[in-house]
Hints:
The chain is about 85% helix and about 0% strand. With about 270 residues, it is mostly helical.
Amino acid sequence: xKHKAFAFVQRLRLRLASSERWLPLLVFxxxxxxxxxxxxxxxxxxxxxxxxxxxxxxxxxxxxxxIQTLDSTLNNFRQQIIWPLAQINQTRAFVTSSxxxxxxxxxxxxxxxxxxxxxxxPSHLETLVRNGQSGSIGQFQPLYTNVYGNVPxxxxxxxxxxxxxxxxxxxxxxxxxxxxxSDQTTQGMLALADSIEQQSATAxxxxxxxxxxxxxxxxxxxxxxxxxxxxxxxxxxxxKLAHQNSLLKQSAASTRNLMNQxxxxxxxx
Length: 269
């Protein structure tokens, strides 16, 4: 019922506005008419105006007054019950005050540079790892090799040792690249959080569910990337266990070879 009444008010206002647009044209046409016709028509026009005025002030005026009262009641209901204007303004003021008080400090914390490497090659690698730009990952391999060296050649190490070095390097590089992607994602999440915070300070009444949905989506994205980082850590731990087991296997093989050689020495005449 409230929506129908509001729609009726809008239609009535449009009709009245349309009627008012024709009144100046009617008066202008009367002024351009011949004097005799003008004298004869002015009385009729005045009579029409009086009829219209009495009709508007009478039945239509009462209906308009009732409609305006209903419209005012609906507005008060929206501002006091559905979207309390006082509480909304209080929330906006709190968000604005919090941003003014802590925004600068948070930006300073994010801008802190904690690079610690001092030599040239490690400094370049550390800068790449900390820049949070996925587009620079293609430069990773040569910088990593400059710091940690190449896989030993076949003449310098056994195949098993070369395999271990290669897989350890691969997993280490994969984890470092994941941290770059994670930092980039963190920057995006912070930018999105700042945007939602700004919107909440100027949001229109009734838009809270939209902002809450945006915040929920960003939280899901953050959880997904957190799971990706956790998976990278699990891979590193698995690689460490595999490396330790490989060393044990090599030790067992060396012990077996030593025992075989000792047995051969003892069995010789």
